[in-house]
Design a protein that fits this description.
The chain is an alpha/beta fold and 651 residues long. The chain folds into 2 domains: 484 residues, Rossmann fold; 128 residues, GMP Synthetase, Chain A, domain 3 (2-Layer Sandwich), CATH 3.30.300. It has 22 helices and 30 strands. The strands form 8 sheets. An 8-stranded mixed beta sheet has the order 12-11-8-6-7-14-15-23, with helices on both faces. It has a 7-stranded mixed beta sheet with strand order 5-4-17-16-18-19-20, sandwiched between helices. The protein has a 4-stranded antiparallel beta sheet with strand order 21-22-24-25. β16, α13 and β17 form a beta-alpha-beta unit. α8 crosses α9. The two termini are 26 Å apart. The structure holds 5'-O-[(S)-ethoxy(hydroxy)phosphoryl]adenosine. 5'-O-[(S)-ethoxy(hydroxy)phosphoryl]adenosine (WTA) binds next to α13, β20, β24 and β25.
Amino acid sequence: MSTDSGAFDDLLHEERRFSPPAEIADDAVLRDPSVYAEAASDREAFWAGWAAELDWFEPWSKVLEWDPPRAQWFIDGKLNVSHNCLDRHVEAGRGDRRALIWEGEPGDTRTYSYSELLEEVSRLANALRDLGVERGDRVTIYLPMIPEAAVAMLACTRIGAIHSVVFGGFSPESLADRNNDARAKVLITADGGWRRGAVVPLKANADEALQTSPTVENVVVVARGGALTEEVAAPMVDGRDHWYHELIAGAAPDCQPEVMDSEDTLFVLYTSGTTGKPKGVVHTTGGYLTQVYATTKSVFDLHDEDVYWCTADVGWITGHSYIVYGPLANCAQVVMYEGAPDTPDRGRFWELCQKYGVTIFYTAPTAIRAFMRWGDQWPGEYDLSSLRILGTVGEPINPEAWMWYHEVIGGERCPIVDTWWQTETGGIMITPLPGITETKPGTATRPFPGIEAKILDDDGNETRAGYLAITEPWPSMLRTVWGDDERFMQTYWSKWKDIYFAGDGAKLDSDDYFWILGRVDDVLNVAGHRIGTAEVESALVDHHAVVESAVVGKKHDIKGESIAAFVTLKEGIEGSEELVAELRQHVGTKIGAIAKPELIVLTADLPKTRSGKIMRRLLRDIAEGRAVGDTTTLADPAVVRRLQDEHEEEG
Ligand code: WTA
């Protein structure tokens, strides 16, 4: 386990407790603690109750078919996700309500009502059909945080196409890998997007990716802005590239939603695992929508007057579930922001909260730690009294950051929901309920009603410190890994029988609250982003100068973890600062800037066990400057001494 468990033992003695404030508890969506027992006594009825709040073209005949590890939810039920996120609200007379309240990094703004969003989604859906996209086809979406990202996702769901959203920070090569793995037929991108005052040239990246993405036949390009288009003008390729605005203008405003089966695939989202190749996590329709709908409503205590802002990017699961599908299924008023939190200055997020009267704010611990570091004066300049509920996700939140969030952002008034979940779980799994749960800084508290989580040891016995396991099926669980069912079985279902292995370590405290300790596999969590050590290693050995590499996580004050790489060069190649810079850049080119190692140590050898396994724990100790522990299994103990010397020279 990568986490120092001594420090966590101290955490378990956390004495500070925060009860739900009366003004929230009295009127909360879930306010009666009996909901836990009721859900546990009949989980299927609990989830069916939530599903019944959605629109179904045809009812389900059975709630759950569980043939481990195969789950089917709401069998025979027919529905359409875009219909549930849009038409349902317009038909209920809520068409004029604001759906998306968007602000670009330069300060340009756009608002879409539910009717306007429905029309644009329908037009794009028609346009995609005209480009030959059929039910079940894959569409890659590579966009900045602009409203068209949500429009594109919803348009796919409208016609039953499967979207694969690729984070705009990924490199052309990563984009091409994802296009090819999914065999995407269409790519939706933009000329560019704004990030820290600079333009990210998405179309130019896409063009590069398309040289090795033979399945992509058509490209839809959003013009992010006139000036931008001129600045980053990547030429449009005749017959392949189409301007989004021209397609929309030429398409009919009505589009009959496709009638989808509850178990039809809704989307694929690639995430890092323990091998060099990211896996396409497959989510289906009815169960996914039910769980993200239920959790958005009850975890964030969503009421009509709320203005909801989740700061994630749509390229990650948090953006899928808690910017687009969960909130829109709830007819929420959703704030969406394109850019960085420190542009033009470090008060940007708080300015947005004040300007739009944000009441629910959901972000990541890494961001909270950066805000803390920047100082109280930034939030202090703005009126944050509209805030009601605060959320965090992506990594364990340290109690110090939790307390700062509570005091400085929440004015000691707002419950904090620390939500544990994963790309694979689709929706929130372990979390406080703001009207019910007494919180303690640093713990995600208890499983959501209808979710069964336990802590198990290697043999599957219950324990108070061990591996986090989900012991019963849940509606938004992943169904498989795209094109690699074997990997699905191996990664999640081979550790114990019929129990989901989450890959996280966890402990239970005396209140039976869950404390998540972090990953137990070779997956890093850098600023809330999952990066596989093997991915970075294969990017490094891809460089002509490198013969071998080992990548580990190193504690980082803001990012939680940063990437440290130990690299052995080929015989006869001289190490130099330039080469180290080149290696970092190479990883950036292969994967994306988020995967660039912060530390690269050039070394003649790597510490290995007698059986040839690289000793990562030892490397972590060295990267973090700790005394080296037990090395009795080391094949050549002198390696460690040399490594430490080399690292000290670097540092
Ligand atoms: C970590 C993000 C502690 C965990 C939704 C998990 C957390 C991985 C929390 C999934 C939390 C997420 N407390 N750790 N509240 N939330 N994690 O797939 O290690 O990007 O396995 O999904 O993030 O990351 P993913």
